[in-house]
Amino acid sequence: MKSDCFPRAGLTLIEVMISLALISLLLLVTYTGSLFVFSHHRQQSHHFKEEQNLRQAMDAIEKRFRELNQQEITYHSAQKSFNSRIPRTDFPGMTTVWIDFSGVNRNRLNTWLYFDRTSGTLRVNKNNEHNVLYTGIEDILIKEVISGKLIEITLIGRRIDREQTLTLKLSYRCDDS
């Protein structure tokens, strides 16, 4: 005797195909969303890292300027460089130290900081070592706000559309020769 009161056991082929299609669609949407989120996160991390790099480079510039003898700073606007005389550490006397933002690879000894435009790096060359301190710098701009008293230094990032600006109150001599 056949009874129609009990439901059939099992699934039909159409039901299995619809279930697989829905699960595949759900997995595809989840995968695409995850790729978007991870890509966006990676991009934001990269921008944050580059911005932090510019801030740290600016801090290094400020630190070096603070270490200079404030009464002995000379600014050479044509070369975008500064020099100062400081006491020697190895024996009595004075030595000249340099901070150069011209963008040219600097081979002069006692260069506390210099900007190399071709590699986009901020470097130190105290003893011909050319150590890289920071990377990803497109340009360094110098603007004299008040001649001999106030200078503004702007770092422009190479890989991101960002810049950092530092305004320093210094007493310096201008050498426009």
Please tag this protein with its features:
about 180 residues; 7-stranded mixed β-sheet; 3-stranded antiparallel β-sheet; 10 strands
Could you walk me through the main structural features you see in this protein, from its secondary elements to its overall organization?
By secondary structure, this protein is of the alpha+beta class. Helix content is 31%, strand content 36%. The chain has one helix spanning 13-67; strands at residues 73-76, 81-87, 94-103, 111-116, 121-125, 131-134, 137-146, 150-157, 163-169, 172-174. The chain has a 7-stranded mixed sheet with strand order 6-5-4-3-2-1-10, covered by helices on one side. A 3-stranded antiparallel sheet has the order 7-8-9, covered by helices on one side. The chain is rod-shaped, with a radius of gyration of 31 Å.
Short overview:
This is Prepilin-type N-terminal cleavage/methylation domain-containing protein. The chain has 177 residues and is of the alpha+beta class.
